[in-house]
C-alpha cells in the first residue's frame, strides 16, 4: 500500500505531468536509486526509460498506459545505471487527476530492492488493494498534497486575475503567512513596490506564452518586513479547452545563496587584488600548457603583455624555456603532482629567478620571483667578505672576537698561529677564550676582566707583555678592545686587535737614550766648553796685531796653547758622552 502521509527514507517520489510531458517535482535521493540526478531527469524525460531492461520496457509502458485513477499498481524490474550497476527496482505507481487543470499526474514511488532479491518474472504487475472509488480519489489527493507540502521549494498558483489560488506550506512557513492571509488576494501584496512591475511583466508573459517557462528573480518581504531574494520558474496552465486558467510557480529562497555568492565574489576579488599586487611573477598554465592567468608583475618581469600570452602555449611564447630547468620543473610538477622549487639564472633576460611550481588537476600554478638584485648583492657581499678575509689574514696583527660569554666568534690566521705556537692548541670557534688552553688562572682572570670592560660599553687600549710565538722572545702588544653591537644596539660581543709594538718600544727607548746624551752634550757645551772658549776669545783680543814682535804676545801665545788643550779635552769628553752615554 502507498504511505500517503510521509515518504520513507529509502524511497524516491516523482510526479510527472502526462499532459505536459514533464516532471513537476522529484523528491528523495533519486541518484542513489537510479544513478542519475534530478537535474538530468528534468532535462531528459526519457532517461529513466533507457535504464530499464529492453525486454521489460514495453510491458511496463503498456501497463502505465492503461493505468486509471482507481487502479494503483506495483512493478518490479531491473535497471542498469549509467555506472553499469544492475539493480532490482520496486516501482509503485498511482494516477491522479489535478482538479484545477484536469491534467493526469503520474506519481511514482521507487525503492531499490536488496541485491539478493532475484526477480522470478520481469516487470511483475500487481493491482494494489483499493477502497471504493471516492475513498481512493480522496487518498490520492491526500497523497499528492502531502508530497507538495513536503517540498522545500515554493509551489504557488494564481488565477488569470493574478489572485492566489494555492500556496504550499514551505511558502507560508518561509514568509510567515497563514493561508487565509493571501489566498484569493492579488500577488502584489507579497511584493515590494519597487519590484511589482517585474512580477506583473512575468505574469503577462506567462498568459501570452502558454507552455513556456518564464524565469523571475525578485525580492519578497515576509510578515516581519525582512526581504528574501527569490528565484522562480513560472508557467501557464491550460484547461481542457486550451485556455489559460492559472499560472503555476515553482520558486526557492536564494537569499543565503546570494550571500554566499557575494562572499565568494568578494573573496575572489580580494584574491585577484592580492595576485595583482604580488611582486612575484604569477601565472597559471592549463593541462595543454596554455596561459590561463598572469599578473602585472609577470608582464613587467617577462616583458610580455596579457594579450600576448593568454590562451597561448608557453613553449610558443617562450621557446627559450625549452631544455631549461623551467621545462623540467614544470613537467615534474605536473607528472608527479608535487610542488617543485628551484633557483636559476635565465640567460636570455640575464636575470636570476627563485621559482615555485604547484600542480593541480587543471594544470600548474607558478610563482617566480626576480632575485637578480639580491643575487648580485650576495655576490658583492661575498666578494667583499673574501677581500676582507684576505686583508685580515694578510696581516701579522692578531684579530679576534668573543661573545658575551667569552667564547671565540672569529679569529684571523695570525691569532690562531700565535696561540697555537704558545700553547700547542689551536683556538676554535665556540670555545672559551684562554680557558683550557694551558694558561694560568690569573691570566684567564685578567683577560676576562678586559672583556668585561668592553661588554660594559667601554672602548679602550692596553699594552700587554707577552711572548712572540715565532721567536719565543718577550714581546709587547698594544691591544684594542671594542664593543660589538647588534642591530638593536645591544652589545653582543667584543672585538680585539693586537699589534706587536716591541720594535716600536725599542726605538722609543733608543730615542730616549739619545735625547739623554744630547742633554748631556748640551750641558757639557754650556759649562765645560764655554769657559775655555771665553778665555780664548779674551786672549785673542790681547794680541798686539800691529806689532807681532811685542814680547807680551809671546806670553799670550803660551796661554792660547793651554786654552786650546782644554778645549780639545772638552771636545773629547763630548764625543765620549755621545757614543757611550758615560
TrEMBL record:
Catalysed reaction equations from the record = ATP + protein L-histidine = ADP + protein N-phospho-L-histidine
The EC number(s) this enzyme carries: 2.7.13.3
Keywords noted in UniProt: Kinase, Phosphoprotein, Transferase
Cite the PAS domain residue spans from the record. Answer: 140-195, 267-312
Under the heading InterPro entries, the entry gives: HisK_dim/P_dom, HisK_dim/P_sf, PAS, PAS-like_dom_sf, PAS_4, PAS_fold, Sensor_kinase/Photoreceptor
* Family annotation (SMART domains): PAS
Q: Which Pfam families match?
A: PAS, PAS_4
Protein name according to UniProt: histidine kinase
Amino acid at each position: 500500500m502507498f504511505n500517503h502521509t510521509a515518504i520513507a527514507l529509502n524511497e524516491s517520489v516523482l510526479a510527472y505531468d502526462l499532459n505536459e510531458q514533464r516532471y513537476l517535482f522529484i523528491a528523495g535521493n533519486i541518484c542513489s536509486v537510479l544513478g542519475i540526478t534530478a537535474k538530468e531527469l528534468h532535462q531528459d524525460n526519457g532517461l529513466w526509460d533507457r535504464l530499464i531492461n529492453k525486454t521489460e520496457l514495453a510491458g511496463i509502458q503498456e501497463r502505465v498506459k492503461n493505468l486509471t485513477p482507481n487502479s494503483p499498481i506495483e512493478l518490479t524490474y531491473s535497471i542498469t545505471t549509467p555506472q553499469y550497476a544492475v539493480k532490482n527496482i520496486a516501482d509503485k505507481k498511482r494516477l491522479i487527476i489535478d482538479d484545477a487543470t484536469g491534467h493526469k499526474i503520474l506519481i511514482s514511488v521507487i525503492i531499490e530492492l536488496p541485491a539478493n532479491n532475484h526477480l522470478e518474472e520481469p516487470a511483475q504487475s500487481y493491482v494494489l488493494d483499493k477502497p471504493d472509488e471516492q475513498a481512493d480519489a480522496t487518498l490520492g489527493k491526500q497523497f499528492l498534497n502531502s508530497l507538495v507540502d513536503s517540498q522545500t521549494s515554493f509551489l504557488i498558483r494564481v488565477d488569470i486575475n493574478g489572485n492566489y489560488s494555492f500556496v504550499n506550506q514551505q511558502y507560508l512557513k518561509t514568509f510567515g503567512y497563514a493561508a487565509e492571509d493571501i489566498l484569493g488576494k492579488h500577488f502584489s501584496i507579497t511584493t515590494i513596490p519597487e519590484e511589482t512591475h517585474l512580477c506583473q511583466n512575468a505574469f503577462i508573459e506567462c498568459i501570452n506564452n502558454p507552455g513556456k517557462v518564464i524565469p523571475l528573480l525578485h525580492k519578497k518581504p515576509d510578515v516581519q518586513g525582512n526581504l528574501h531574494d527569490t528565484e522562480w520558474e513560472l508557467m501557464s496552465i491550460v484547461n481542457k479547452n486550451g485556455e489559460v486558467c492559472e499560472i503555476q510557480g515553482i520558486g526557492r529562497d536564494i537569499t543565503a545563496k546570494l550571500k554566499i555568492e557575494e562572499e565568494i565574489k568578494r573573496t575572489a576579488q580580494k584574491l585577484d587584488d592580492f595576485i595583482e599586487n604580488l611582486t612575484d611573477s604569477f601565472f597559471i598554465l592549463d593541462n595543454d600548457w596554455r596561459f590561463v592567468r598572469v599578473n602585472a608583475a609577470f608582464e613587467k618581469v617577462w616583458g610580455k603583455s596579457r594579450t600576448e600570452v593568454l590562451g597561448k602555449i608557453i613553449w610558443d611564447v617562450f621557446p627559450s624555456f625549452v631544455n631549461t630547468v623551467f621545462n623540467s620543473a614544470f613537467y615534474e610538477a605536473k607528472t608527479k603532482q608535487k610542488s617543485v622549487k628551484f633557483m636559476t639564472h635565465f640567460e636570455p633576460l640575464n636575470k636570476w629567478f627563485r621559482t615555485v611550481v604547484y600542480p593541480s588537476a587543471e594544470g600548474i600554478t607558478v610563482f617566480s620571483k626576480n632575485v637578480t638584485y639580491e643575487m648580485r648583492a650576495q655576490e658583492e657581499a661575498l666578494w667583499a667578505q673574501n677581500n676582507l678575509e684576505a686583508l685580515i689574514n694578510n696581516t701579522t696583527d692578531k684579530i679576534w672576537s668573543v661573545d658575551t660569554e667569552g667564547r671565540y666568534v672569529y679569529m684571523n690566521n695570525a691569532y690562531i698561529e700565535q696561540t697555537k705556537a704558545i700553547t700547542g692548541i689551536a683556538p676554535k670557534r665556540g670555545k672559551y677564550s684562554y680557558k683550557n688552553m694551558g694558561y694560568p688562572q690569573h691570566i684567564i682572570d685578567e683577560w676576562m676582566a678586559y672583556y668585561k670592560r668592553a661588554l660594559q660599553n667601554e672602548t679602550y687600549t692596553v699594552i700587554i707583555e707577552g711572548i712572540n710565538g715565532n721567536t719565543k722572545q718577550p714581546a709587547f702588544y698594544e691591544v684594542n678592545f671594542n664593543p660589538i653591537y647588534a642591530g638593536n644596539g645591544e652589545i653582543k660581543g667584543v672585538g680585539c686587535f693586537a699589534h706587536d709594538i716591541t720594535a716600536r718600544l725599542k726605538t722609543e727607548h733608543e730615542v730616549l737614550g739619545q735625547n739623554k746624551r744630547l742633554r748631556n752634550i748640551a750641558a757639557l757645551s754650556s759649562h765645560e766648553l764655554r769657559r775655555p772658549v771665553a778665555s780664548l776669545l779674551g786672549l785673542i783680543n790681547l794680541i798686539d796685531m800691529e806689532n807681532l814682535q811685542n814680547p807680551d804676545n809671546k806670553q799670550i801665545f803660551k796661554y792660547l796653547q793651554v786654552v786650546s788643550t782644554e778645549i780639545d779635552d772638552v771636545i773629547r769628553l763630548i764625543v765620549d758622552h755621545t757614543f757611550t752615554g758615560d
